[in-house]
Amino acid sequence: MSNEEIRPATAADVPAVEAVTDAAYRPYIERIGVVPKPMEADHAADVAAGKVFVAQAPGGPVVGLVVLEVFKDHLFLDSIAVHPDAHGTGVGRGLLRFVDARARALGLPEVRLYTNALMWENQRIYPKYGYEVVERRVDGPYDRVHYRKRLL
Questions:
Q1: Which of 22, 38, 48, 79 would you label with 28, given CA atoms 20 to 30 Å apart?
Q2: Strand pairing partners for 111?
Q3: DSSP state of 65
């Protein structure tokens, strides 16, 4: 990332979290035939629970975010979203590095995530950052590819 900082989201960030999530995931609706789960999340509740971290340049808009959930044996990357205007600027790469650092700081040995099988762009990205496919599974209307990254 250029000069964005990653910090915990606050209640004041909820509209930006909603906007970035919508901008990042809306293009997939037609392709996958269903609204991506992150678009239906209760963003205010996730922010209040301390699950959301935003990427923002000082004085600038929120351009990216991650939603994380801590489990006893892993950190789950529930959602990563980068505003389309910030694609190619390193925001996503910085967020993925942040996720790794957060897991290590919590003493967790791995990060897990999944992506829709029709979001092929993600399937090219995650292996570049050390993620390996664990399984492909259909969960209701979602056909998901599950990944993990071992940190230890």
A1: 48
A2: 75, 149
A3: E
Q: For the chain, first and last CA: distance in Å?
A: 25
Residue type, 75: L
Rounded CA-CA distance 112/132 in Å is 10
pLDDT digit string, tens, across residues 114-147: 999 999 898 999 999 999 999 999 999 999 999 9
Of the chain, the percentage scoring pLDDT greater than 70 comes to: 99
Q: What are phi and psi of 137, to 5 degrees?
A: -145, 140
* Collapsed DSSP state (helix, strand, coil) of residue 118: coil
Cβ–Cβ < 8 Å for 118, 28: yes
Residue 145, CB-side half-sphere exposure with 13 Å CA sphere: 16
Please report, as a single letter, which amino acid is at residue 67: V
| Residues 6 or more apart in contact with residue 84 via CB below 8 angstroms | 23, 24, 27
The encoded tokens of residue 132 equal: 């390996």
Amino acid at 135: E
CA distance 140 to 8: 31
Tell if the pTM clears 0.85, that is, is over it.
yes
> Residue 152: pLDDT above 80?
no
